[in-house]
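REQUEST ID: PR-0412
SUBMITTED BY: lab tech R.K.
PRIORITY: routine
TASK: structure prediction, single protein chain
INPUT:
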Amino acid sequence: MIKGLYEAHLPVSDLKRSIEFYTGLGLEFDHIVGDRLAFLWIVKEKSWLGIWETDKVELEYHPSIRHIAFQVSLEGLKNSVNWLRNNGYKPREAFGFKPIEPFVMPHKDYAHAKIHFNDPDGNSLEFICKIDNPNKLTERMYLSKWNEINK
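STATUS: complete
OUTPUT:
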């Protein structure tokens, strides 16, 4: 029955600033509802993000309520730190990894490569892609080390 995630929502303090932030990431603005809610396509006609202007943005951060992970290609992820910085975004440390390059979190038969950053209101964002784990590695590491081990 479920075919994917259609929408997710985040609180923001300034709707106009947040629309600019997310369109700068490559999301496509679709429409505004009233004066406090905007929708932007993550993937046109497949998934979108709703951003709600509110004075409740200062909720204590927890990934269950203020986190979005954007799926990207591995090639895109490899250049993501430079892309983010060159476009005015700031990658951040996550899970003990400095934002010098993407890092990998392995699972049994696969892994996720990722980099984290925040929007202007402190909502946690990440670029992520699923990758193979042919050697069944269990240690978290930077993507460059992962690639060297899995040559």
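NOTES: Strands lie at 7-12, 28-33, 37-43, 47-53, 67-71, 91-92, 103-106, 110-118, 124-132, 141-142.
REVIEWED BY: pending
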